[in-house]
Write a structure and sequence with these properties.
By secondary structure, the chain is of the alpha/beta class. About 55% of the residues lie in helices and about 10% in strands. The chain folds into 6 domains: about 1-180, Ferritin (Up-down Bundle); about 195-485, Vaccinia Virus protein VP39 (Rossmann fold, 3-Layer(aba) Sandwich); about 560-645 and about 895-920, no CATH class; about 655-690 and about 705-770; about 780-890; about 935-965. α8 crosses α9 (about 235-250). Mean pLDDT is about 85; it is low at about 805-810.
Length: about 950
């Protein structure tokens, strides 16, 4: 049965918020109007949640109390416990009376004038009512009445009204309406990324890319019961992902204490709202410059935390003027105006970390090797043995930061096996390139975190470096390339091959060893051995483009890819059963399922030898990330068919409605054939009249003219008119026959398109019926029926009212009489008094006059009544048809069938990820082959020969023309 109310999906909420953004875009830049959207979203969410709680209390806890007493209790803040109290001024759906101004104040949803100031007052009222949680967060941080340079509101009153109306049309923002509880938080993250993308360099002031945050959180090694601190928290992404990490591990995220600070007012407001939208209500986010005035203090000292994580702004200035807690900087102070505050942030983080804690921080590479005061501080930190690891990141991961970045992992108390050693990773070569910004792939995150946490030495990637043996002799530089150099070997070039031709067998063997062998690709498809020459091969192709075609059609590669998918399918048959255990399970089995599925996937795919453990993990994590919101829905609501419909209607169609889809496909094929026939008939018509388009006038470019039926008719009719005047009947008939055939084809095309539209609409109705049954449709029909009956009763009342006014007619009409009964009684009365004129009494005449007076009005009412009565019959037929149709298509989808469809959807997603990775391996073979072709396909000898042949041809031609002797 379809739900009474369809849940709000993430895609729907994101689309709604983007429409709101579109309305504001005309007035200001994206980076400027974000607070309008965030503020409106916050007001609506807080008010909706408050209304829901208040209604619940009214119906349960206080239902026994008189309304006045209940209303009074529900206006007290302590009635709502730990949840936010929303004062009357900030309520979306409820107006109130202002005693001070002695007037009624409309609800926020009904505001028509002074909307900006009223919304500002609403935010201020929420902050005042919840000062312990929201102090300094909303007031003057979000301004709906922002003025431009001329003192006029940036957003006009009418535009704010449009925003309110948009929110009024959207369902209430309460968890009951969401497909999963954290829907609003996910949508907020979507908006943050959108605004960060739009803001460019400024986006880095409040947003760190999700993939980078994910890596930092994994390296943090969090556990429940810990405290986490981000001294430059921006929008709070690192703290929120820390919270989610604990939840994903199946532990209690409510036992995680979250602290943060940022020096920008709007960003602190964004951060706090982000926390609230993720249902994190007890975070501690402070405003202020953390270097000069750290706000997270305890007993007059810097508060210390179990874990500290941050992406501080690079290369900042700072000032010691009025600086608090100078003892934090035990390793020294950097020049105040030298844009060298990076290690000041690091020292603050060390001071804010417990002795048993861990720190992960993003830093520019300069802190690893710069001299003077920075070198002094770095040396002291190394000598103090607080640096556990250094990780080099790929370039251009961050908004507006093109300089290379790295991660520092610090611990005050390193275990014995790590003392006086620093673990280095150089991961700057492995990433997904982008036009403006690069991205860490799941396999990159997996590899970095796995190698680091297990301290695995990998050639040209990672290793331990001894402080006394290597770092100290290198003057305490931590330059990553000095210890882990991943510079690729220079491209080999065989001089003899360049001069005389051929492809070095050694390079072919290297390509085979690195790429081809694991994909079962025979290099003989591209290279052929030379007779009596074991050092050089020749190309089997004469054009570089042939290499791609050969690789794509290779049977060996196809067999390997087929084996990978075969193993994946076998894995899924078992894995899907384990995966399915998450349904309606709000406990902690999800981390166990995730870990188990990843382990078993590695067991079946790694032995094939194409993908390493990190690539297999990349496939899995990509898939898991794609379905994470589905997982939340499955855990909360079970196998909901809305996870398939309408996103993957193709699965439903393939399983239940293949015949209907085949009919649609056939109709589309016939339409394509008719369109082709029409195009040919148009050309026949234009050729028959020797049509040529008009030449463009001087200075104008020729425009491509589309040959349409209209053009063909116009041109042919011109000829017909001329030929008619000339009396050429036979030619007129020939041309008219061409037009007639064109008209027949057009009519056939229109009929076919109408049929296709009907087939598509019918299929959609069948899908709706299959997914949700007939109950919902029948409820709609019943609602329509109730409306019809209501209108019929109104007509009965009106009809009765007409004659009751003249009750002396002595009819049996009452207020309960139907319209049909009234008309029938009136007709009976008319027949009774309609005697011949001679026999009529004065009473008869009076009755007939009254009937004539009301008959027209009553006849009109009777017609309307009969029309509605006919609708009732039609609705009953429709309701019967729903049941018949549902029975014909095999009934509604069962929970078991829905489960199978959802699992098929998820398998298709992971299979597509495997295909993507396999395709990347094939492309690598193509690239390697093309690279060798570019190097060796054309030798110096061949170039010389081509030049000599061309010169000979030119000389011969010139001689034949007597230009030279």
């Amino acid at each position: 049965m379809r739900k009474e109310k369809i849940k709000i999906k993430l895609s729907g909420l994101e689309s709604f918020l983007m429409k709101i953004a579109d309305q504001l875009r005309k007035n200001m830049e994206e980076s400027e109007y974000r607070e309008y959207i965030f503020g409106m979203l916050f007001l609506k969410r807080m008010s909706d949640v408050f209304d829901e709680k208040r209604d619940e209390l009214r119906k349960t806890t206080y239902k026994h109390l008189p309304k006045e007493v209940c209303d009074d209790i529900l206006e007290k803040k302590n009635t709502y416990g730990d949840m936010f109290f929303i004062p009357q001024r900030a309520r979306w759906n409820e107006g109130w009376y202002d005693d001070e101004e002695d007037k009624d104040i409309p609800a926020l949803k009904d505001l028509k004038t002074d909307i900006g100031p009223m919304l500002n007052k609403a935010l201020a009222a929420i902050e005042d009512a919840n000062s312990s949680e929201l102090q300094g967060i909303l007031k003057e941080r979000i301004n709906f009445n922002k003025l431009d340079v001329e003192g006029k509101p940036v957003i006009k009153n009418a535009d704010l009204r449009s925003l309110i109306e948009a929110f009024n049309d959207f369902p209430a923002l309460i968890n009951e309406n969401f497909e999963f509880d954290d829907l609003l938080g996910a949508a907020y993250e979507f908006l943050l990324k959108y605004f960060a993308d739009s803001a460019g360099k400024k986006g880095g002031q409040f947003y760190t890319p999700t993939t980078v945050v994910r890596l930092l959180v994994k390296l943090l090694q969090l556990d429940e019961g810990m405290s986490v601190y981000d001294p430059t928290c921006g929008s709070g992404g690192m703290l929120i992902q820390s919270h989610q990490y604990i939840e994903d591990e199946g532990k209690n995220p409510q036992n995680l204490e979250l602290y943060g600070q940022d020096n920008k007012d709007p960003v602190v407001a964004i951060c706090k709202m982000n926390m609230i939208f993720h249902d994190i209500f007890d975070s501690h986010i402070m405003l202020g410059d953390v270097i000069g005035n750290p706000r997270n203090v305890e007993n007059g000292r810097i508060k210390q935390f179990d874990r500290v994580i941050a992406n501080p702004p690079f290369s900042q200035n700072y000032t010691k003027n009025e600086m608090l807690f100078e003892s934090r900087f035990k390793y020294g102070f950097l020049p105040e105006n030298g844009k060298k505050a990076d290690l000041m942030f690091v020292q603050h983080m060390l001071a804010s970390c417990k002795d048993t804690g861990r720190i992960v921080v993003v830093m520019p590479h300069g802190v690893l090797f710069r001299g003077r005061k920075e070198k002094e501080i770095r040396q002291k930190m190394i000598e103090d043995d607080v640096i556990e690891g250094v990780i080099g990141l790929p370039p251009q991961l961050f908004y507006g930061a093109s300089i290379p970045a790295c991660l520092l992992i610090l611990r005050k108390q390193k275990p014995d096996e790590l003392k006086n050693r620093i673990f280095f990773i150089n991961a700057d070569k492995e990433f997904l390139p982008g036009k403006k910004q690069n991205m860490l792939r799941p396999e990159d995150i997996e590899k970095i975190s796995y190698v680091y946490l297990n301290k695995i030495p990998v050639p040209n990637y990672s290793r331990f470096v001894d402080v006394r043996k290597e770092i100290e002799p290198n003057d305490f530089t931590l330059n990553i390339r000095k210890y882990v150099d991943n510079t690729p070997a220079p491209e080999p070039h065989d001089v003899r091959a360049h001069l005389l031709g051929g492809v070095p067998v050694s390079e072919v063997n290297e390509m085979n060893h690195q790429l081809c062998r694991k994909m079962n690709f025979a290099t003989e498809s591209i290279f052929t051995p030379r007779a009596n020459d074991s050092i050089y091969d020749d190309f089997t192709v004469s054009d570089k483009r042939e290499i791609k075609a050969i690789v794509e059609k290779d049977k060996g590669i196809a067999a390997v890819v087929g084996e990978m998918h075969c193993q994946l399918e076998k894995w899924w048959k078992t894995a899907s059963e384990e995966f399915a255990t998450i349904a309606n399970n709000k406990g902690s089995n999800l981390p166990k399922v995730r870990s188990s599925l990843l382990h078993t996937m590695k067991e079946v795919l790694q032995p094939i030898g194409v993908l390493d453990q990190y690539q297999v993990a990349g496939i899995f994590v990509n898939w898991w990330d794609n379905i994470k919101y589905d997982l939340k829905t499955i855990r909360q609501r079970g196998w909901d068919i809305e996870l398939v419909n309408p996103e993957r209607d193709d699965l439903i169609i393939a399983r239940y409605f293949s015949k209907e889809q085949a009919d649609i496909d056939e109709s589309e094929k016939l339409i394509a054939e008719k369109e082709q026939a029409i195009e040919e008939q148009i050309e026949t018509a234009l050729d028959a009249v020797d049509y040529e388009p008009e030449e463009p006038e001087d200075g104008e470019e020729a425009k491509e003219e589309k040959h349409t039926p209209k053009l063909a008719r116009e041109q042919v009719k011109l000829f017909i008119d001329e030929l008619t005047e000339e009396g050429d009947v036979k030619e007129v008939e020939r041309l008219q026959a061409i037009l007639d055939e064109l008209k027949v084809l057009e009519d056939q095309l229109k009929a076919q398109k109408d049929q296709l539209k009907h087939q598509q609409e019918h299929l959609q109705k069948l899908i709706e019926l299959k997914c949700y049954g007939a109950d919902d449709s029948k409820e709609s029909a019943k609602a329509l029926m109730a409306q019809v009956f209501s209108e019929m009763n109104d007509l009965n009342f009106k009809a009765g009212e007409v004659l009751i006014r003249d009750s002396w007619l002595q009819t049996n009409i009452t207020e309960n009489s139907s319209c049909a009964e009234i008309v029938e009684q009136l007709n009976t009365l008319k027949r009774k008094h309609s005697k011949t004129k001679k026999l009529r009494t004065e009473e008869d005449e009076k009755v007939l006059a009254i009937i004539a007076k009301y008959k027209k009005e009553l006849d009109k009412l009777a017609k309307q009544y009969n029309k509605l009565n006919s609708q009732v019959s039609k609705i009953n037929d429709i309701m019967d048809n729903y049941d018949k149709q549902l029975e014909k298509i095999g009934g509604q989808i069962t929970e078991h069938e829905s489960r199978e469809l959802i699992l098929q959807k998820h398998y298709d997603l992971i299979a597509s990820q495997l295909t993507r990775y396999a395709d990347a391996e094939s492309r690598a073979i193509v690239s390697a082959g093309e690279r060798l072709y570019d190097k060796y396909a054309l030798s110096a000898r061949q170039i010389t020969k081509q030049r000599d042949d061309a010169l000979t041809t030119l000389t011969t031609t010139l001689k034949s023309l007597n230009y030279i002797d």
